[in-house]
Amino acid sequence: MDVGAYILSEYIPAKPLVGNLEVCFTAGEQTPTEACAQLKCGDVLKFPFARLDSQPRSVEIKESKVLVAADKATETKSVVELTLESTFDYQPGDTIGIMPTNNTEQVETLLYRLELLDQADATCHLKIVLNCAKKNAKLPAHIPATTTPREILTHCLSLNFVPQKQLLSALAGFTNDDKERGFLSCLSSKQATEHYQSLILEKGLLFIDILELCVNCRPSLAFLAEHLPRLLPRPYSIASSPLEDGNRNLRVIYSLLSHRPGVTTSMLEAAGQQSSPEHPKKVVIYPRISNLFRYTEQDLGSNQILIAVGTGLAPFLGFLAHKEELLKQQSQKESGHSWLYIGAKTPVAILKREKLMAWQQCSLLERLRMCYSRGESPIYVQQMLEEDCEDLVKFLMKPETVLYVCADGAKISQSIASGLGRCLQKALHLSEDEASQLLKELKTQGKYREDVWL
Ligand SMILES: Cc1cc2nc3c(=O)[nH]c(=O)nc-3n(C[C@H](O)[C@H](O)[C@H](O)COP(=O)(O)OP(=O)(O)OC[C@H]3O[C@@H](n4cnc5c(N)ncnc54)[C@H](O)[C@@H]3O)c2cc1C
């Protein structure tokens, strides 16, 4: 891509971000840490939605298993199940935060660009510059008081984010190449809104891509430390029951994009592949605050309608495994009925299909319906719901029934909600407005629980 082609003849650059920090190197080196450096930041640093009774901890990856292989022809993503060491109590449906680390090669390239390869592991700290013009300049809470350039770039800062105009404008000041300077300044201007729209918002160029385009741009580490966003944990649903192996393990399931995979999923992929029983790799996780989207012993007597698309099945695998374990423990107890509606691209893309069939065989699952978007009708979950409309609404309206929807996208959840609305309309002879009002009420009553991932 020729960056010169994106420079307008007239433009006014955005006001650039300014640097208020400096990096001071002190004597000594540190061996690169595998655990997340943000753990060294102390209590001032909060982890989003973290449960108060537990700290983020480095845990072993005990196993990594491919559940679904990627398939280009059907655009099926690879899906992997990770078994992790469990160090806290949980219930199926709960979620954990996983701390990502940036890709090692990306970090190495950036250290080279910043001319810091020689000092990559040298001990350093951040300081507010003398005569700082900004009144309330602060040190970033997500960077440890004593650290190294490698640590900062690997564990603390996001490199894959959408660059804002003021940042682009500031980056222009870090290159001595006229074309790059023009490109960055221009892209930050109001006049180049169309270019910003097409390159950044549509083509999806991230901060790291901009640096790749502008090979002479060398921002300082202090500037990056101050202005790059914090590398944040990503939530994952627990896909196992704590009763399965004495609460020693927990499982999560993730899908991986084939083209430009995300930060956390590519980290998990690499760690999972390198991990072995003799040399287990570790990952930093913490339990997130629970909500109503869970299945506990108290739910054994109630009914569930479980609706999922793709990897959205993950929490329900935990629900059903828990139900199975609870029933093993207390076989005399009456259990409720569970119905599962699941959609995937193809039959092989249904996670743990055999297990689901076995659960249906032993009546743990009273109803199991599957559909395939690359198959024959019905292709979407909402079509199956509509086919079962009368039964489904009757079952849903029982006081002890709760409906759970988990989909890896807001659009899918919306389509499912519309499908459910149509079922209510038809079965209860309601108008569209009345049906959507009823859906709202069901949500408020906690009878309709949703987990939206993205
Ligand atoms: C409550 C909750 C529970 C979740 N549970 C799970 C779970 O159990 N399993 C799971 O796989 N994900 C789950 N997610 C999504 C997960 O948190 C991440 O967003 C996802 O894994 C991508 O993270 P990343 O760091 O690899 O990608 P990022 O680097 O953050 O992503 C870069 C871009 O790529 C897109 N992207 C990356 N990977 C994927 C993918 N596999 N599919 C579609 N788009 C993608 C992102 O949308 C983003 O726009 C959950 C999210 C929430 C809010």
From TrEMBL:
Keywords: FAD, Flavoprotein, Oxidoreductase. Residues 54-296 form the FAD-binding FR-type domain. It holds the Pfam family FAD_binding_1. PROSITE patterns: FAD_FR. The keyword Flavoprotein applies. One of its GO terms (molecular function) is [methionine synthase] reductase (NADPH) activity. GO terms for biological process: homocysteine metabolic process; methionine biosynthetic process. One of its GO terms (cellular component) is cytosol. It is an enzyme of class 1 (oxidoreductase). It comes from the Eukaryota. The keyword Metal-binding does not apply. Gene3D superfamilies: NADPH-cytochrome p450 Reductase, Chain A, domain 3, Nucleotide-binding domain of ferredoxin-NADP reductase (FNR) module, Translation factors. Its EC number is 1.16.1.8. Its cofactor is FAD. PANTHER family: METHIONINE SYNTHASE REDUCTASE, NITRIC OXIDE SYNTHASE-RELATED. This is Methionine synthase reductase. It comes from Drosophila yakuba. The lineage of its organism: Eukaryota, Metazoa, Ecdysozoa, Arthropoda, Hexapoda.
